Structure formats: C-alpha cells, structure tokens
Amino acid sequence: MSQLPHRIIVEILSRVLVKPLLRFKSVCKLWDSLISDPQFAKLQLRQSMADNKNTCCRVLLMTWPPKSVDFEESTDNVNAVRNLSHPMIIEHSLSCFYGIIGSCNGLVCLYDEFNNILLGSPTTRDYRELPKPTGSLNHMFGHGLGYNSSIDDYQIVFASKIKADGFRETGFNIFTLRTSTWRRIQGLNSVAVSFEGPGTFWNGRLHWLRIIQNGTQRVFNIVSFDLQEEKFKDVLTLTEYYGSDIFLLELGTSGKWLYLFCEKRYSHFEAFVMEVNGNRAAWSRLFKFPHDRFPGYGSMALHLTKSGQVVVNFNGWQLGLYNPKQVTVEYFDLGNCLNEFEAHVYGESLISSNNY
Amino acid sequence: MASTDDKVILKSSEGECFEVDMAVASHLQIVKSVLEDCEGSSDKVVSLFIVEAKYVAMIIEYYKNYVELKEKHEEGGFEEKLKEFEKQFLEQIDKKELKGLVMAVNYLNAPALFDVVCTAIAKHIENKSVEYVREYFGIVNDFTAEEEAQIREEHRWAYDGVNDD
C-alpha cells in the first residue's frame, strides 16, 4: 500500500495527544520537523480544543521543586509525577517559594519570591525567563495568563495596589510576550473589588470568582477580564452558591468547558460545566458525590479523569484519585513533599513560549 | 418513496455500481460537483476511478446512517446517536483498512467522515511504539542511530506505557 500524502498525515497527527507526538518525533526527520513546527502546534491545539476528546490535562503542584502530575496514569507509575526542570528552579534552595501566575494553552507561568518569572511548558520543557515587572509580585492579588487572539500573543496580567514609586494605587500590570514589555493600566473600577489567585483563561477572557454584596445578601460572582478590550466584565452571579454550608468554590477549565467545583460542608462535592452555544451559556452538572468518607475538610476536587475518577487535592498535602463508585482513594507518591502546596490544572500542548 | 430522479449511481474502480439516494451522495463534494457540471444530462453515473468497492460501500453506509439519524433526531440528540453509530461503524473496520478509507474519503471530499477516520487512526496509533507507527504508515527511518538516540533522550518519559497489541 502506498504512503499517505503528507497533508493527510498532518490531519491525523493533529488529532494525536501531546505525549505520543513527542514520542513520534523519532519516527523520521519529516515527522520530527512537523511536530516541532509552531504552526502545527497551533493546529494541534485547535483540534484538541474543538472537542474535549483530545484534551489532556495535568496538575501542577507548587511544591519545592514544582511537580507536574499526569493523573491519567495509575498512582503507582513512577512517571506519573515529574519535577519541573529548569536552571531557575534547580538553582534555588529547598526553602524558596514558588507561586503560579496562571496557565493557558499548555503554557504555565511561575514566579518566585525574588520576582523572577518563568513562562513555558512543563511538557516540552521549553521555558523562557521574562523580565521582572516594576512592581513587586508579592503585592499582587488577582493574576493570570491569557491568549489574545487579535494579536496572536500571550499576555500576563496582575493587579496590585502599589506603583513603581511606592505610591499606593490600584492598577493592572500587563505583560505582552512578543514585545517582552510590561505596562500599567489605571482606572479600572472593578479592580478595587477583591478577587484573588490565578484567573482561569477561557473563551478569550480571564475569569475569577469573588464574593460580592448583592443587596443584603453576599453572593459568589464570576468576574472576567477581556484581554482584547482590556475591560472587566461581570459574567454571572451564582446566587444559589453562597451560604454557611459552602466550604469551597473553584473555577477550572478544560477544552471548551469552564468548570465550577463546589464543596458543600458535611455533604458532597459537585462540579458543573458551563457550555457556550453561540451567545448562550448554560451550566450542567458534571458529577456529585458524597465525601463523608474523606478525612478532614478542605479537600478540593480538581478534575475528572477519562475513567471517571475524581482528582482530589487533599488539604494541600496529598494528591489522589477518588473512585466514586468503589469509594476508594489512591494517592500519588509526591516524594518528600514538606510544604502545603497549591494545585493547578493545566492542559497539555506543543505551544512554545520561545516562538513569540 | 423517493423517485429515481433522486438517485445517483456511484461506480467503483472495479466497475461495481452502487445506487444511492441523492440525499446521501450529496455529502460527497466530488459527486456534487460532477453532477453540477453535467446538469441536465439524464446520465447520473459518477465514476470514482481510484476508489475500491469496499470503501465505496463503507462510505455509503456511513452517510446513509448519518442522513437517517439526522432526520430521526431533528429535535435533538443527533450528535449523541451519531457518536454511537460511529463507534459501531469503526469497530467493523480493520485497522489497516482505515488508511485506504481515509484516502478514499479524502478523494471524495467528505468532511464529516474524514474527521471521523483521521481521529480513529490517531486513537489507534496513540499508544503504539515508534517501530509500529513506521510499519503502519510504511515510513523509512532516516535518522542515524546517534540522532535517534538523542531525540529519544529528549523526551524519554514519552516512551513509557507503549502497547503494540
């Protein structure tokens, strides 16, 4: 049988997951150069976003050093947990603090206590050190990494209350990858309202959960920042999700879905997905299960594996897979993990920060 | 019942003829454009010179079900039912035949099935070794032993969990 034309090979490979694609670089020279091509990386990303069939997610743990966990692997597979390797990470001692600014399209953005910022892919191990911002990252509250499709570029944003000259004023700092420059925008009213942590990039915007006063009631509300317009927008208010029984609420994303994870005290975990159809968005329940067999509270459901297990962050000390049907928990071996970690789900891609 | 006007005959490379409803055949862009070119002609035979009969049969089966399911589930649920059918459809096709099928579908220019077959091949090779993939696609390894060793070393973890069965 004659060989398939290259155009069809490209179509097939763009539907393959990242891990086998990295393996297939050794098939032949043509495949190696195809899989390394930035245009192919974009095509593969588009295909994986189009349908959730091809999205492969991992958990980033902000341990010392940071680790990436492939939760689709079994917990006893030694390759399921990998340390992130980069000179900036190894050089530092075990006591260094690492935080996550955000993740988007397979890229993750990390910072340390010395204001160093690293942008890259834990999958391809292709990283780029970014210039330090003028303000200190230790004073930031809301932050995130996003993709601005109108200029085909990645942008980092963080809100802080201190300007370069030490004067306290709320502003938003934006870094643009292609020009490798920071700038500051002022006068954004919404910034004054508290929202924290890494924003979830989805549908062209960064999303944060926050608590606001709605009349006499306190409610959860999702605020988003549009990278193209550089404007804040309220997405929706979740009136039914605030009360003394709500312990945790968190946003996540996978492919075309925006997730909302929720833990109800003494009761259950549940997750909802928001699907956008044209201009309409609707939440539907992804799963719900009781957690009364878990030790302690503050455990957070992070994601759902392809086999239907729930990836759970147990109080920031352990990461495990919960099987709702068999009511069993298996833990990943994280080695000597001595600090309480932040866990963040990101998608895998071939996108490289050095191509911008 | 559709009249014979709504039928078209597809002729395989071996000369085998398949009578197909226009509603089904119109999903094949090549058939559409051939018929448009000879509009008015009573002869509704389209020769698919390079496509073997077994692939013509597969493609017709897919789009026949596609059209039927779409009609039946106009109110919703079409995509789900189609996915169910696609799974069943792919199960009966030999993995080696997927390559012939993707060539045929590409030639006939049928986007929905093209996506399905490309995805099926992608899923098939995903957990396979480099050696299997070379053999499957008939690709000659043009790396020197040193080059290959180096490229494998770069992403050593990606070679884990391979199963050629």
From TrEMBL, chain A:
Highest taxon listed in the record's lineage: Eukaryota
Coiled coil: none
Residue intervals of the F-box domain: 1-43
One Pfam assignment: F-box-like
TM helices/strands, residue ranges: none
Protein name stated in the entry: F-box domain-containing protein
Organism: Erythroxylum novogranatense
From TrEMBL, chain B:
Function: Involved in ubiquitination and subsequent proteasomal degradation of target proteins. Together with CUL1, RBX1 and a F-box protein, it forms a SCF E3 ubiquitin ligase complex. The functional specificity of this complex depends on the type of F-box protein. In the SCF complex, it serves as an adapter that links the F-box protein to CUL1.
Protein name: SKP1-like protein
Transmembrane annotation, as ranges: none
Highest taxon, organism lineage: Eukaryota
Summary of subunit composition and partner proteins: Part of a SCF (SKP1-cullin-F-box) protein ligase complex.
Keyword Membrane set for record: no
Organism in which the protein naturally occurs: Erythroxylum novogranatense
InterPro entries hit by this protein: SKP1, SKP1-like, SKP1-like_dim_sf, SKP1/BTB/POZ_sf, Skp1_comp_dimer, Skp1_comp_POZ
GO biological process, alphabetically ordered: jasmonic acid mediated signaling pathway; protein ubiquitination; ubiquitin-dependent protein catabolic process
Residue ranges of domain SKP1 component POZ in the record: 7-67
